[in-house]
Amino acid sequence: MGNFGLLDKEEENDVEVQWEDQQKINRFSRLNVLVDQLEEHYKKQKTEKEYLEDLAMEIELHDEDEPVMYRVGQGFMLLEVEDAQQRIEKQKEGIDNKVEELKTQIEETEKEMAKLKAALYNKFGKAINLEKD
């Protein structure tokens, strides 16, 4: 999140934060939190995809004549290997779509943050710190 440090005495007098400026600072802060949340969700989706890829490989090694236990909600059901593979592929496609959507949201949010950051640094210079720790 943004880190707002103490100002020098001479900088304190030079900086006047107007309502519009405060709105930009607040917006930047909210976007910063949003990016952190989106990145966390993105990582979870990537981990889930890796899990499904590992599962798909395990099922490929499984005897095709024997059904496999496939988790559905809170329970399990026996499925033919081919059916299980199809379901896993559908899940991976869904996760791929979510990952792409999250990636796009992160990029768009970071673009907006960059614009706000440029405007705020242009006005306040060293009197404001918007960098992550």
Automatic annotation (TrEMBL):
Molecular function terms from GO: unfolded protein binding
Statement: the UniProt record of this protein carries the keyword Chaperone: yes
Record organism: Mycoemilia scoparia
Known function: Binds specifically to cytosolic chaperonin (c-CPN) and transfers target proteins to it. Binds to nascent polypeptide chain and promotes folding in an environment in which there are many competing pathways for nonnative proteins.
Family the entry assigns: Belongs to the prefoldin subunit beta family.
Subunit comment: Heterohexamer of two PFD-alpha type and four PFD-beta type subunits.
Cellular component, GO, one term: prefoldin complex
Protein name: Prefoldin subunit 4
Coiled-coil spans in chain: 81-119
